[in-house]
Amino acid sequence: MAKEFDVVVIGGGPGGYIAAIRAAQLGFNTACIDEWKNKDGKPALGGTCTNVGCIPSKALLQSSENFEHAGKHFADHGIQVSGLGLDLAKMLGRKDAVVKQNNDGIQYLFKKNKVSFFHGRGSFAGKAEGGWQVNVGEESLTARHVIVATGSNPRALPGVPFDEEKVLSNDGALRIPAVPRKLVLIGSGVIGLEMGSVWRRVGAEVTVLEALPTFLGAVDEQIAKEAHKAFTKQGLKIELGVKVGEVKTSGAGVSVSYTSAKGEEQTLQADRVIVSIGRVPNTIGLNAESVGLKVDERGAIVVDDECRTNLPNVWAIGDVVRGPMLAHKAEEEGVAVAERIAGQHGHVNFNTIPWVIYTSPEIAWVGQTEQQLKAAGVKYKAGSFPFMANGRARALGDTTGMVKFLAHAESDEILGVHIVGPMASELISEAVVAMEFRASAEDIARICHAHPSLSEATKEAALAIDKRTLNF
Question: What positions does the domain Pyridine nucleotide-disulphide oxidoreductase dimerisation occupy (predicted)?
């Protein structure tokens, strides 16, 4: 006999588990289905983000940054280090431990909020009385509402499948058992740059092959140029405007043939290659076609502005629908959908969703770029402030980068904030709050910021809109 629920969520990633928790908080009898498992076969809630994405990559970024600081920067602080060594197995083990803590944390939250969990792959089985039937393994569930939160998968190069040994996705890139001598990144996406940074810091020679003629095309051009300069100085070899050809694996490693921007035929020999050319929505095994769930040409589930699909009481959120493939975007949609089911007015503002690349320097932004404003014909003012003029950044020994403000030329409303530099991922939150409340640059310029702090660079960039910085 089928088990009955008010809400069934398919997928236990950031969008799915958050949607389930919020639905349960609102009084709905809620279940969540997820098939991810650890090496021991036990459930591993959290989806791509927790298991092979956001969380483990940040753990390795932190570990590798500590290693680089010890080897290259501690001496500047009068700290002498001798006999520095790398225990990669322990570093990877720490990463796995951090992941497990997050897995266990989600299971605890399900128990706390009385969310029923079913381990396995969820698929539509058809309509049921008052809702939908969803199968998971031998179990059959019925739900008045279904929220699809099945996430995304890494996009492979045509004809070059991931083997996770020589040709790596984000999954394989997180568990290379020995530091590669030479590593090639195909694509300069977020995942590629972050993992390239990890392996460069611990000793790999890293080359980035990017098809686009510009570096980080989605980032504000001035910020991207500053980041490119910093990464090149660190030792990342970045080639733009290339056309990747044949990728061949062998016992010795991988060879990557490509045509450079100048039209020259080149071949790179490497131990491994990480492919970071985007992600595709995941509807594998969902059985969407059997119930008529509409999917677009990209493979994404079609939804309206409120995440409703073409089927009654079936919703979809996160990477499997339109919009940026970001964990926090999925979370916001998950909360909003649960509240809409409850008759409330869930809210997601795409223009105030922050973006972060956790390299060093970090890159973070919210709102529109300068090139977007120019293309749209919007009259704007720009102001920036370099971290080299910030006292806290000098004390940290990390003065790379800047904060940049873009505001409307007439109303002074903040249209975009772009940061490259230390702790950009934390600093961007002030800009998100300001833009959500439709603040002006003058509002930020008039707010007292603690001294000495990196956030003073945000205030100074706002002051720069009217060319009245105080410390530069």
Answer: 353-462
**455 assigned ligand-binding residue:** no
Q: Please give the C-alpha separations between residue 114 and each of 25, 27, 109, in angstroms, as whole numbers.
A: 9, 10, 8
Length of the chain: 472
Q: Is 196 labeled as ligand-binding? A: no
For residue 187, say whether it is annotated as part of any ligand binding site.
yes
Burial status of residue 149 (CB atoms within 10 A of its CB: 0-12, 13-18, 19 or more): buried
pLDDT tens profile 86-125: 999 999 999 999 999 999 999 999 999 999 999 999 999 9
**pLDDT at site 41:** 86
pLDDT on residue 1: 74
Mean pLDDT of the chain: 97
Q: What's the rounded Cα separation, in Å, for the pair 349 and 417?
A: 16
Question: In terms of residue numbers, what domain contains 10?
Answer: 3-154+280-348
Q: Which of 119, 347, 408, 451 is catalytic?
A: 451
Q: Could you tell me if residue 66 is inside a domain?
A: yes
Q: What's 219's domain CATH number?
A: 3.50.50.60
User: What number of other Cβ atoms are within 10 A of residue 308's Cβ?
Assistant: 16
Res 101: pLDDT = 97
319 labeled part of a ligand binding site: yes
Task: Please tell me the total count of domains within the chain.
Answer: 3
pLDDT tens digits, one per residue of 437-458: 999 999 999 999 999 999 999 9
Better-predicted residue by pLDDT, 41 or 52: 52
403 is in an annotated binding site: no
The answer to whether 171 is annotated as binding is: no
311 labeled part of a ligand binding site = no
Residues 6+ apart with CB under 8 A from 72: none
Same domain, 240 and 382: no
Give domain status of residue 331, yes or no: yes
Task: Determine whether 451 is an active site residue.
Answer: yes
Q: Is residue 162 a part of any domain in this protein? A: no
Q: What is the CATH number of the domain that holds 366?
A: 3.30.390.30
Residue 320, both tokens:
């499997």
Q: Which pLDDT score is estimated for 154?
A: 97
What pLDDT, on a 0 to 100 scale, did the predictor assign at position 318?
98
